[in-house]
């Protein structure tokens, strides 16, 4: 095979084709644009969008002109993938922009693929260089296998961080097996533990090369557990969303109290934790089935079907904190110091304290500015404030 | 197809908490006993809630990587897995005798064989003994030695202490060690006074915990007197009041525990064709059955002594 010769001209060997044909059902094959119908005498009628040929022998099929070999090897590959109706198969087909079956129940919320499906000849042409897809921070690239022995439609899959798209593979750390994803996913770039797998803090600089379809699914499921399964459920219209109230009411033990969290607090919590800058899942849960939260759910390709364990654990803390009544305090600050408090909170909330330069004292969240404010406004008990009112709800006597 | 799910606690704060779950699941994977093997967690992902939908198998064996029957195994895990019709009585257990119950998971329509925790399986006794062999570097350890099985105690539920006592009794019945005691962190007899309970000069301390964390890396070493400051580590063995105390670290990190996962699944009807070292029959393991332990004793000083998550 030369570089100028499209790889999809690789043909199936006639024996392999014959054994495949022996397994097709009596109605023939109808798959991705390929129709093969038994015509008697061991021959077949062949129909593709480009070609119609009657009564072809398996040997002639194996020798047929392009793009017939592409249709045949495509059919063979997906026969090998198997798993009709599984999330694994649907995901692998999504990876190479293959047409998907019509959703059983299509609703206005059934997600659309942002890329058009590709018919087999176009798909094969694209698979020669690889088709890039993004899944959270992952970039998945299915391509036709390099090995001429297995080139008859066999796909392999490369997987990197999406920011490494343009990098020379030689600069990336090549991984050996799917479970290596576990180590990569454990810590962020600063060495901090990532308890939320779909946080947008996946480190880059690594590559999985030439994975099989099953290995790809295992690796993606290690980076982003259950995202493929839930995406597939959403595609089929049977994503089972548990809204905040259902999840909260289900909790017991130390988390039973989260059911007491006020509704507006759930709104703030979703804004704090469940937006794209904090989590790549697209929040599909609301306060209750008929009571939507105002904050946007995000744009991720895979859905979040219920508040995760981190949100439930954080909710417990807010449940405790929100039981405190509000009070009015008096303290002295200059207008710039008020702005500085805002800058400090913003810097922490956006996780940008590490980016503030040592000597950039113009930034209110600069360390020296913070230390100065502390020196000026704190006494030994902390911030120098005076309470000027006690909320009526504070104490037994309040009505 | 059949799948094994290892159901563990995990942690939001400490990445090491899930190490045993991954290590034992990997060991089962490598033996090819199941079509699919998954870890699932209360505090990590995949969550108990979503693990079953990641499987293609119709038949799933779920084994809790927990020490005792109690809140997590009886309430949290079955609820989160959506096991239809679950109630603890289905285990028909006296607190340490749960084997399994077969139910259907509502959201995925799969058959789930919900097994008792690893900690109460009879084969766990072998893991405790193996731990003593590993830490002393002596596959024949027993004569002249005392062994203490150490547990949390009653803080969460009475079954916690039952599991500790159950295995201490079983080790004692083998008459391999000169003395065997169950000791606890928060009830009598307390592990703090370990040397009061043993006449043997050498005492092996095996904490019946799933993962190393705050209790096994900080509390127990300091309370027992292995060290004044856990951050400086401790000797194995350590001299405490004229005794030599061999501190083994959490039993859940012992490689043989993977066999207990398999035993649990086999007891629940899994069609598994592999050799298993940890055996239910004490006679078959009393003398060096299975692979020999590493010859080098572990050293507390060489460990990374990070603070545990404190959540488990």
UniProtKB/TrEMBL annotation, chain A:
Q: Which superkingdom is the protein from? A: Archaea
Please list the residue ranges that the record marks as compositionally biased, kind Basic and acidic residues: 98-117
Question: Where's the DUF7348 domain?
Answer: 14-81
Which residues does the UniProt record annotate as the domain DR2241 stabilising? 120-234
Annotated DR2241 4Fe-4S iron-sulfur cluster binding domain residues: 236-316
UniProt xrefs under Gene3D superfamilies:
3.30.1360.190, 3.30.70.2320
Q: Give the residue ranges for region: Disordered.
A: 39-60, 98-119
Which protein is depicted?
Uncharacterized protein
Naturally occurring in which organism (per UniProt): Natronobacterium haloterrestre (Halobiforma haloterrestris)
TrEMBL record, chain B:
Keyword Lyase in the entry? The reply is: yes
User: Could you provide one GO biological process annotation from this protein's UniProt record?
Assistant: cobalamin biosynthetic process
Q: Name one GO molecular function term.
A: lyase activity
Tell me the InterPro entries matching this sequence.
CbiX-like (IPR002762), Sirohydro_Cobaltochel/CbiX (IPR050963)
Q: What is this protein called?
A: Sirohydrochlorin cobaltochelatase
Query: Which CDD domains does this chain map to?
Result: CbiX_SirB_N (cd03416)
Kindly list the organism's lineage: Archaea, Methanobacteriati, Methanobacteriota, Stenosarchaea group, Halobacteria
Which superkingdom is the protein from? Archaea
Q: What segment(s) does the record annotate as region Disordered?
A: 277-312
* Pfam families, alphabetized: CbiX
Give UniProt keywords alphabetically. Answer: Cobalamin biosynthesis, Cobalt, Lyase, Metal-binding
């Amino acid at each position: 095979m030369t570089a100028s010769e499209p790889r999809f001209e690789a043909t199936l060997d006639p024996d392999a084709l014959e054994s495949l044909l022996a397994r097709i059902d009596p109605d023939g094959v109808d798959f991705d644009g390929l129709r093969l119908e038994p015509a008697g005498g061991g021959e077949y009628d062949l129909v593709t969008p480009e070609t119609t040929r009657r009564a072809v022998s398996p040997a002639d099929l194996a020798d047929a002109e392009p793009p017939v070999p592409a249709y045949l090897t495509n059919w063979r590959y997906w026969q090998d993938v198997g798993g009709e109706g599984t999330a694994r198969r649907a995901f692998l087909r999504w990876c190479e922009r293959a047409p998907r079956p019509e959703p059983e129940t299509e609703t206005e919320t059934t997600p659309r693929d942002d890329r058009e499906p590709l018919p087999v000849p176009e798909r094969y042409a694209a698979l020669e260089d690889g088709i890039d897809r993004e899944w959270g921070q992952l970039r998945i690239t299915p391509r036709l296998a390099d090995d001429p022995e297995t080139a008859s439609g066999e796909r392999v899959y490369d997987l990197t961080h999406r920011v490494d798209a343009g990098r020379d593979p030689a600069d990336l750390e090549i991984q050996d097996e799917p479970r290596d994803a576990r180590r990569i996913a454990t810590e962020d770039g600063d060495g901090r533990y990532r308890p939320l797998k779909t946080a947008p803090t996946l480190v880059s600089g690594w590559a999985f090369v030439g994975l099989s379809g099953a290995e790809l699914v295992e690796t993606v499921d290690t980076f982003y557990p259950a995202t493929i399964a839930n995406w597939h459920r959403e595609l089929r219209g049977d994503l089972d969303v548990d809204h905040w109230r259902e999840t909260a009411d289900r909790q017991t033990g130390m988390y039973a109290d989260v059911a007491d969290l006020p509704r507006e607090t759930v709104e703030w919590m979703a804004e704090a934790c469940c937006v794209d800058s904090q989590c790549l899942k697209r929040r599909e849960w609301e306060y209750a089935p008929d009571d939507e939260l105002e904050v946007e759910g995000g744009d991720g390709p895979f859905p979040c079907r219920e508040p995760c364990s981190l949100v439930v654990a954080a909710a417990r803390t807010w449940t405790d904190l929100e039981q405190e009544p509000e009070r009015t305090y008096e303290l002295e600050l200059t207008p710039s110091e008020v702005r500085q408090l805002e800058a400090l909170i913003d810097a922490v909330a956006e996780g940008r304290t590490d980016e503030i330069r040592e000597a950039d004292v113009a930034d209110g969240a600069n360390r020296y500015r913070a230390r100065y404010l502390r020196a000026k406004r704190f006494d030994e008990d902390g911030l120098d404030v005076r309470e000027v009112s006690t909320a009526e709800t504070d104490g037994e006597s309040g009505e | 197809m059949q799948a094994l799910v290892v159901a563990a606690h995990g942690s939001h704060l400490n990445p090491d908490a899930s190490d045993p779950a991954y290590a034992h699941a990997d060991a089962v994977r490598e033996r090819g006993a199941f079509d699919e093997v998954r870890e699932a967690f209360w505090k990590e992902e995949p969550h108990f809630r979503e693990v079953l939908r990641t499987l293609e198998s119709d038949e799933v064996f779920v084994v809790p990587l927990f020490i005792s029957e109690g809140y997590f195994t009886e309430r949290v895990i079955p609820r989160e897995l959506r096991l239809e019709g679950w109630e603890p009585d289905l285990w028909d257990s006296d607190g340490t005798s749960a084997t399994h119950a077969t139910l259907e998971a509502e959201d995925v329509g799969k058959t789930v064989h919900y097994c008792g925790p690893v900690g109460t399986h009879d084969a766990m006794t072998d893991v405790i003994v193996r731990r003593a062999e590993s830490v002393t570097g002596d596959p024949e350890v027993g004569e002249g030695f005392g062994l203490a099985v150490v547990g949390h105690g009653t803080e969460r539920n009475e079954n916690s202490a039952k599991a500790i006592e159950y295995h201490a009794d079983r080790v004692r019945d083998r008459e391999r060690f000169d003395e065997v005691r169950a000791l606890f962190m928060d009830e009598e007899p307390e592990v703090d006074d370990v040397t009061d309970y043993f006449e043997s000069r050498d005492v092996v301390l095996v904490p019946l915990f799933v993962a190393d964390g705050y209790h096994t890396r900080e509390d127990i070493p300091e309370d027992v007197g292995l060290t004044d400051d856990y951050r400086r580590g401790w000797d194995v063995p350590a001299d405490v009041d004229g005794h030599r105390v061999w501190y083994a670290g959490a039993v859940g990190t012992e490689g043989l525990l993977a066999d207990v996962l398999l035993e649990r699944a086999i007891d629940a009807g899994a069609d598994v064709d592999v050799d298993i070292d940890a055996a239910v029959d004490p006679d078959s393991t009393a003398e060096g059955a299975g692979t020999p332990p590493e010859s080098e004793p572990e050293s507390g000083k060489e460990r990374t002594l990070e603070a545990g998550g404190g959540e488990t």
